[in-house]
């Protein structure tokens, strides 16, 4: 005698719908013996009947993961936007960067980015991502230093303010 557990085990083997004929072959029973079991399982919400070709196929009635994945992506986007808004609420401004540069630079105007970062009090990731544009627009990058930006295999960790014309 075929029971629901046998049918569920067969349907778990594939994520695609399985035809009534294949289910009958796998449980070694006749279609007319299996159809009432499948119908009752469908009424209980355990199975979902799908039209396949000229006949019926069945698959387990699992939650729609496409809907869930879309909701998860929407939530991730909202969290990302909130995170960007939170991080952009300038904990440290470009003015503080310029002030730290003025304190740290030597008599020729050179200052290592590492010392500026420590003076400002940010992590490497925060500092270099936040001030990248500011540094590239207003300062010349010079090869050397302990940390900085890598360009074409060279480490640029010293800066000098450009002459503004």
From TrEMBL:
InterPro entries in the record: WH-like_DNA-bd_sf, WH_DNA-bd_sf
Gene3D superfamilies tied to this protein: Winged helix-like DNA-binding domain superfamily/Winged helix DNA-binding domain
Record protein name field: Uncharacterized protein
């Amino acid at each position: 005698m075929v029971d629901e557990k046998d049918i569920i085990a067969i349907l778990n083997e594939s994520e695609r719908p399985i035809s009534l004929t294949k289910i009958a072959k796998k449980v070694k029973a006749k279609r007319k013996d299996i159809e009432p079991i499948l119908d009752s399982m469908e009424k209980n919400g355990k199975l979902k009947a799908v039209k396949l070709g000229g006949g019926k196929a069945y698959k387990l009635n699992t939650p729609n993961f496409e809907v869930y994945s879309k909701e998860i992506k929407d939530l991730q986007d909202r969290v990302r936007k909130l995170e960007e808004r939170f991080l952009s609420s300038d904990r440290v401004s470009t003015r503080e960067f310029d002030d730290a540069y003025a304190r740290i630079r030597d008599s020729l105007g050179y200052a290592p980015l590492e010392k500026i970062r420590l003076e400002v009090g940010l992590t490497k990731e925060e500092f270099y991502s936040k001030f990248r544009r500011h540094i590239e627009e207003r300062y010349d990058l010079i090869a050397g230093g302990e940390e900085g930006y890598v360009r074409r295999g060279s480490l640029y960790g010293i800066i000098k303010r450009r002459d503004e014309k």
